[in-house]
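Figure 3 (text version): structure tokens given as input.
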């Protein structure tokens, strides 16, 4: 496959992901844990993208163009059941960002997502989840002032502004908080152990 064909393939994988997500939103199934159909698609997409990365390295903008590079990042973000793959991609993406061949914002999101799954504080506050009060809030981070400074450096809004956006988004998508917060927390913990994010 040449770069053009690879780019088209990556976009096709991302579109399948978005179509399934839209279907789950319509059926009110997005908030009810990690949907089995979605997990299967995420793992399949990750496997296909890994084959591509093994061939061409990270799908950076200079190789596959902006849309396909962005699509690759979305597939990686959604490969939450594949810790080794996500970590490997973060390392490849960091090299691409350092060479001005990928978006630093993508690296911020990916490294935060990995940190959350590993139980570490996120650096940019990009990852959100339901809190104990049934509100959509940022996952654990170190220090609000530092987070906002880092966010500003890469062109983000403030964390306070982002909280407002995220809370509006879940309302617009009719997503509801978990009925039993503690149960969901325990299930998440079990899933992270089973998947290999934590020991």
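Below: residues designed for each position.
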């Amino acid at each position: 496959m040449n770069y053009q064909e690879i780019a088209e393939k990556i976009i096709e994988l991302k579109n399948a992901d978005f179509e399934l997500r839209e279907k789950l939103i319509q059926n009110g199934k997005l908030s009810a844990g990690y949907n089995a159909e979605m997990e299967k698609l995420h793992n399949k997409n990750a496997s296909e993208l890994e084959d591509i990365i093994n061939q061409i390295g990270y799908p950076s903008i200079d190789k596959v163009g902006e849309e396909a590079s962005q699509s690759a990042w979305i597939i990686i973000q959604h490969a939450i059941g594949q810790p080794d793959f996500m970590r490997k991609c973060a390392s490849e993406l960091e090299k691409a960002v350092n060479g001005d061949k990928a978006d630093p914002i993508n690296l911020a999101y990916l490294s935060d997502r990995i940190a959350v799954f590993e139980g570490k504080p996120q650096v940019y506050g990009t990852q959100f989840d339901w809190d104990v009060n049934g509100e959509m809030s940022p996952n654990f981070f170190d220090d609000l002032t530092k987070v906002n400074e880092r966010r500003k450096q890469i062109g983000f809004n403030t964390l306070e502004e982002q909280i407002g956006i995220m809370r509006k988004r879940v309302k617009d998508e009719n997503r509801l908080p978990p009925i039993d917060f503690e149960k969901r927390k325990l299930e998440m913990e079990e899933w992270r152990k089973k998947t290999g994010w934590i020991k």
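The helical segments are 3-26, 36-56, 61-77, 83-98, 104-117, 144-153, 159-172, 181-195.
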